[in-house]
Target: DNA repair ATPase
Amino acid sequence: MKVKRTHVKAALLLLVLWGAVSTAWAQRSTVDEAEVEINGITRKGQRIMIQLDSKLVEKAWSSYLKEKSGGTVKGPSILPTPKAQASKGIYTVEKAKIDTITSNPMRIMSKVEGSEQGTMVWWTLDMGNAYLSKKETQKEWERGEAMLQQFARNVYKQDVNNQISDAEKVLANSQSEADRVARQAEEIQNKIAKNQQKKLELEAALVANAQELEQLNRDVETNLKQQEAAKQEVENMRKAVEIVKAKMDKIN
Model:
């Protein structure tokens, strides 16, 4: 039945959701140092791998950069040109201010890229007098690392919330289907009750019809007897008239 399949779907989705929640909270994404080429220049920076869809991560990263830097985020062009394709996944912010890392304005260069291993989020910070480096800017490195890990937690939570929303929709649909089937069962029971009542009425009508037929048959028999009696009465009257006529003839 359809309602059974819907319940199974809801149960499976909830199990998948539980697995996703467990995975998201259990894993702590690590940040490592990596070189990435942007606009023909290879730079060192921080990289984190997130096991989620790249489109979801990329959209969240753009919003996160804007929120944390307070600046204008320049994203990739949507034009189908070679130059635009080369800037795919690249997000930059000029004169970004992130006080949790440094009080000085920075230039942020970042890239989001999907692969079989997951979605890579990479960034480097141009602090004017130095680039982000695990060895040379240790304090800023640790603060940047914390920001990337916080972003990963945020996007995992967002994904889980999306799955919860999907599960709630399936649950709502499942409940609606269960209510529909319950209403259908009630309608069927009402039809059965009406059918049984109609059957009783028909049976009663058949009994009454049989009784009426018996009475009609009796009436026919009575009528035949009455016809016979009437004929006999007519015959008797005819004979009586003939006797009277015969007597009259004798008198004449």
Q: What stands out?
A: The first helix runs from residue 2 to 26. The mean pLDDT is 85.
